[in-house]
Design brief:
Layout: H1 2-15, H2 54-63, E1 67-80, E2 91-104, E3 108-116, E4 122-132, E5 136-142, E6 145-150, E7 160-165, E8 171-180, E9 187-190, E10 193-195, H3 199-202, E11 210-220, E12 223-236, E13 239-254, H4 261-285, E14 289-292, H5 300-315, H6 318-332, E15 333-336
Helix pairs in contact: 1-5, 4-5, 4-6, 5-6
């Protein structure tokens, strides 16, 4: 099973994808202008300019992220902040991504991303959960640790918390923000949050440990975009020092003519397994604190979970899969006492 999962991850290089989570990065040619890209299908969304129904406008924007997309990822180090630092070359990649609705309970919306290559190769990608006016959420604080963050009552009204999860459904980062529908354009902007390094970075460098990020999602006539204002931060002996700023731009363009059927079939065949994995992570994240009991650059847990998902596609034995999940979590995920904001639970 380990070999199969590694094969799936290695196949990500053939997609030419740089993930926000842990999908392998491989360089890919970037279209320097929209004129070089095939025309994207257009859609007309109802305008949400008035404050009459902000909650429904917010929901409409989040649900509009569903679809079949050609995706491009671009990262550009812009401002060197540490003496002597030379910005690294830009990183570009792209591929095709299916975004499926997993849950819609009104105030909670769950979207699953799945990569689908031209050959039919499928890799489960990141997941985003949106929750309305939540009084608490988990936050990344560095060193493979997460802590529960309670919110003041005056911080909650009208907000949506976006929680982003890794390929194996483990936590990655979470942020709070409000949707803005001014001028008929729907945009959500997060507070600044801590994030762990993405795979495109931790596999190639070790000169910083954290990203301090503001995220912005915008719904467009051709799909949606994810903009990132990143600051790369070195943390040593309890002190933080900034290294460089980076701009990230992920463009999800609606596409026709690409076969996303393998991705849909994968999700139909593995959804019960991933339901069980999500439930186990949710139970762990309900604790005051959580630590991933393995180094950031170790991918054994990731490959094991992906391999077990493939096994479930064949045997459909949910009881055996659930027992495996429990055993895996016993050695890879540790519950910890609550950590304070002074220990890094908030980002500025």
């Amino acid at each position: 099973m380990m070999t199969l999962a590694r094969t799936l991850l290695a196949a990500g290089a053939a997609f030419g994808l740089a993930a926000c989570a842990t999908t392998p990065y491989a360089p890919a040619a970037r279209a320097d202008s929209a004129a070089k890209q095939p025309p994207a299908p257009q859609r007309i969304l109802p305008r949400c300019e008035t404050p009459d129904a902000p909650f429904e406008c917010d929901r409409r924007a989040i649900l509009a992220m569903q679809g079949e997309y050609a995706v491009s990822f671009h990262f550009d180090e812009t401002v060197a902040l540490a003496p002597g630092y030379a910005p690294k070359p830009d990183k570009d990649s792209g591929g095709h991504e299916l975004v499926l609705l997993v849950e819609d309970s009104g105030t909670r919306i769950v979207l699953q991303h799945i990569l689908v290559g031209a050959s039919g190769m499928v890799i489960k990608h990141w997941r985003q959960d949106w929750q309305y006016e939540t009084p608490a959420h988990w936050a990344y604080i560095g060193d493979q640790r997460f802590a529960r963050r309670e919110r003041a009552p005056d911080e909650i009204d009208g907000t949506w918390t976006q929680s982003v999860y890794e390929v194996h459904d483990g936590p990655r980062y979470a942020g709070i923000g409000r949707w803005n529908h001014r001028y008929g354009v729907s945009t959500w902007t997060s507070e600044r949050t801590w994030r762990p390094l993405p795979r495109r970075e931790y596999t190639t460098r070790d000169d910083y440990q954290l990203l301090n990020v503001e995220n912005r999602h915008t719904i467009t006539p051709t799909g949606w975009t994810h903009e990132q204002d990143n600051t790369k931060v070195m943390r040593a002996e309890g002190r933080d020092a900034v290294l460089v700023r980076e701009l990230g731009f992920n463009d999800y363009r609606l596409v026709s003519g690409h076969d996303f059927g393998p991705g849909k079939r994968y999700w139909e065949e593995t959804a019960p397994f991933w339901d069980a994995v999500r439930a186990r992570w949710d139970a762990a994240l309900a604790a005051p604190g959580l630590r991933l009991a393995y180094p950031a650059d170790e991918e054994a847990f990731l490959t094991d979970v992906l391999a077990r998902a493939e096994a479930f596609r064949k045997d459909r034995d949910l009881a055996a899969a659930t027992a495996w999940i429990e055993a895996a979590f016993a050695t890879r995920v540790a519950v910890e006492p609550q950590r304070t904001p002074a220990e890094g639970a908030t980002a500025r």
